[in-house]
Amino acid sequence: MKRYYALLLVACACFAPCLSSAEEPTQAYFVDGYHGGVYGHYPPGYTQFLVDRLEAHPEWKINLEIEPSTWDVAQHSEPAAYERLKELLRDQSSAGRIEMVNPTFAQSYFFQSSGESVVRQFQYGIRHLRQHFPDVELTTYSSEEPCFTSCLPTVLSQLGYEYAVLKNPNTCWGGYTSAHGGELVHWVGPNGTKLLTVPRYECESLHSRDCWQTIASTNSPEYIARCLEQGIANPVGMCLQDAGWRGGPWLGYSAGKHYTPSRYVTWREYFREVATATPKDWRFSQEDVKPGLMWGAQVLQRIAQQSREAEHRLLVAEKLAAMAYIETGHPRMTGALDDAWHNVLLSQHHDCWIVPYNGRPGNTWADQVQRWTSMANSISDLIAANALEALVRQGRSRQQGVRIFNPTATAIDAVVAVPLSDEGPRDSDWQSRDASGGTYPTQVVHNQATGERELLVRAHLPSLGYTTVSLSNRGQSTSVVTAATEGDQVVLESDLYRIVLNPTAGGTIASLVAKSLDNHEFVDSNGEWRFNELRGHFYNLGGFRSSADQPAEVRIVEQGPLRATVEVVGTIAEHPFVQRISLVQGSPMIECQVRIDWQSQPRIGEFEERDGWGNHRRAAYDDRYKLLVQFPSTLSSPKLVKNAPFDVCESQLDDSFYNSWEQIKHNVILDWVDLEDQQAGYGLAMFSDHTTSYAYGPQDPLGLTLQYAGKGLWARDYRVDGPTRVRYALVPHSGDWQSAGIPHLAASWQEPPVGAFARSGRPETRSLVDVGESGWQVCSMVEHHGDLYVRLFNATGTDQPQSLRMSFTAETTELVDLSGNVQQVLEPSLQEGQSVVDLSIPKYGIRTLRFRRLKRD
């Protein structure tokens, strides 16, 4: 009998959890809140709505992703509600009812801009937010849009963040992240930084009916059941509603039949008080970010180009202003630079990129980007002009010279265009001499964009500094860059390359030989594609069309001695185009650009899409059918590598193609994509003047997307309204992308040297910040309130300590985080008249140095 009762007790004990589970269902959690702002969507009176709903629902907690400038408006238009919100925000504990989860200035996607812009989005946004809420604690990063990039652990940890979230369940129109892991993971950034993160769970599938959400957006019983089946003890769903929606708590308003019990939490509370799982490391790749934007649509292309140009123009202006401060004490225009950054950051707002046509006529997102970037460029140009004036007026010599400034950390041999006045030389019968003793010819050219004459001058430039070259009219050196007609072909030739163009095949490149690489031929002439060919699927014409379908005229525009340029004038599907190809003496870059003058509305893509809202399969997805410029090469089974903000990603994709929303792949070119033939030891890098998509697969050559024209998201017709203009470049090389210095070439291409005439005496060279052979980049250098900030990024170097040399000294040199907190006080040594500090930066890591109270000679 005792044995019977003992067995009965054991059976009851074993069955108890099942009974408990039936009587007390597992507690689920839900993160509710709002997303938007004064630029996106935040209607008048909405602050009042928020505080009223919070008071009406004491169990409700919200997470806010609201543009910081919104609170400027709320403070003046809703002062009482604004003060009530401030009162609610005073409780920043886990029990608090409001958490600010995305403080960025303009809610950028991040993956489409530089790493420096990622930093500035947070810095400017946090600064503005704390003007309204000084005691706000920024603990968790979360976004309702796919505003993610691989370097976020690096940036967030230096801003004091403890947690991140990789879900965006209710707004996946523009993409999503990979499904991976369970309750918690350690998101491992490219430099090894770890951040405790809630991922998009492995069981969190995309919605089978809709094309904008995952199953986590409503805490449905199906979703919670899947979580429990996966072993997630504390499942959490999420929806940051659009600011403007008037329902209040999401689970009672729009989520329909949701799982119960579900409790509202802030992310801070969930991480600190709820989640219990032991996290596993997830080395998150940039290919785990899957953006599905309208790549190739002309409106998005222009936005990307305008934003990119303004971003780098501003970074150069900042560096020139910092140089002027170091050399002359000339102060920067602090307020103007801040205004310029505000405009640049707004051009990176996710809504600019996904709904460019939204807004009233004349005030769409695309219209606003044009205004924002124009304003930023005007400010940048003014700051750069003032800085140059301070930097070139130092000389007292009567000798005519040119001072050339290098805004990058890479010492380069460069040919620089210097604007000519009417009194300047009328021809190229001048020569230049730099500080190293090099003597080079000059060349007078015509700038297509400005209509002005320019003088091309060659010089060796130091790391982040300047060189002064003297000019004299003592005759010319032998030209090593030429363009000439040879039979029925046109040949471009420099000291590094020989390029043969075939006019009968649309002016495509028949041969590209790299002289310094054992005369290696890079053009594959045996396949169906031609090198530098324009090719796309014009579905209204019944199929593919190519620039090689008919002959083209190849004109020689410039014939050296420093730069040679040809123009290919042809047609594709009856639309005229002009391609320009330039070689520059000493430069590994093959510079290209294309202009297509549309004669009517082209229809380019896989097929004609007739409906649209809920389509999973879209004509705008598969890049094989878009208009591409293609580069079939002799590289055999190459590895593909691409850069991302503060990262470089070795692709694990079989190809870059997909045609349905649930299959989105990361096929984004930020600055460059590189193919490397590991067996032969050669590679080919492609550079783009804007963020867009690239095309590549085992059966398809490397290509750059130039045009899509047809239906897209929300059934919008993406049409052309003017010429398509794109600038791109190629670099054939040996070895891999690191040994070829591809990131450094990209930096110099995007932030080229700046030259100005100066009466500066004998040739000289001066590096203000010299990174040596470290592989580091100076992504920004800016003076702020009398202190100099220099931010370094380890693009190609090792983790070993390296020396940083400065041509100036300061009372204090500090290593600071992105919030300005001192991490270490450095003790520079004086070596050969320079200040030297030794630093160790992990691969793909960033470090910021602050120099207090500069000392000048």
Question: Which topology of one domain does CATH recognise?
Answer: 7-stranded beta/alpha barrel
Largest sheet: 9 strands, antiparallel
| Spans where pLDDT lies below 50 across 5 or more residues | 1-21
Distance between the termini: 100 Å
CATH superfamily of one domain: Glycoside hydrolase 38, N terminal domain
**Total number of strands:** 52
Helix content: 10-25%
What is the CA-based Rg, rounded?
29 Å
What form results from the Cα inertia axes? globular
**Percent strand:** 25-35%
Q: What class would the helix/strand composition place it in?
A: alpha+beta
Question: Could you name the CATH class of one domain?
Answer: Alpha Beta
Mean pLDDT: 93
* CATH architectural name of one domain: Alpha-Beta Barrel
Supply the number of helical segments: 14
User: Can you list the strand order of the major beta sheet?
Assistant: 27-28-29-30-41-36-35-32-33
Keywords: Signal
GO molecular function: alpha-mannosidase activity; carbohydrate binding
Protein name: Mannosylglycerate hydrolase
Organism: Aeoliella mucimassa
Structural features, described:
By secondary structure, this protein is of the alpha+beta class. Among the domains are: 17-291, 7-stranded beta/alpha barrel; 298-391, Substrate Binding Domain Of Dnak, Chain:A, Domain 2, CATH 1.20.1270; 401-477 and 752-758, Sandwich (Immunoglobulin-like); 785-857, Sandwich (Immunoglobulin-like), CATH 2.60.40. It has a 9-stranded antiparallel beta sheet, with helices on one face. Strands 13, 15, 16, 19, 42 and 43 form a 6-stranded antiparallel beta sheet that branches. A 6-stranded antiparallel beta sheet has the order 26-25-31-38-37-34. Helix 2 (46-56) crosses helix 4, helix 10 (298-328) packs antiparallel against helix 11 (334-346) and helix 10 (298-328) packs parallel to helix 13. It is globular. Mean pLDDT is 93; it is low at 1-21. Residues 527-706 form the Glycosyl hydrolase family 38 C-terminal domain.
